[in-house]
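Lab notes, practical 5.
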Amino acid sequence: LLNFTKLVLNSRETNHGISKTIVKQITFESEIILKHRDYPFSIYFSSLNFKYPKSNSYKYRITKLGNEWINLGDENKISFTKLPPGKYTLEVEASNSFNLRTYIKTI
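Output from the prediction step:
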């Protein structure tokens, strides 16, 4: 199981309900809308292997920018500084040391 756990906008952690675009906790959001003033931003995520978290590995891709997966190793955060305006789909996948993969999580 993989979940988005935290959204940091302009170096500040957000809480659900802070704006019309972030109504629920990031775990339950299917879409977020950001303004230029929200940059830089970071999205955190985790998979449910708390016993050996360093054995988890992550990868992501942004479908509008291509189909290449970017490996993150055990880093559970993606930071963005200058995405051009537009609509993007972020996909994240996790696997553990046994190479068991999660379903792809999308926002």
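Observations recorded by the TA: Confidence is low (pLDDT under 50) at residues 17-23. The beta strands are 2-9, 12-13, 41-47, 57-62, 70-73, 77-80, 90-95, 105-106.
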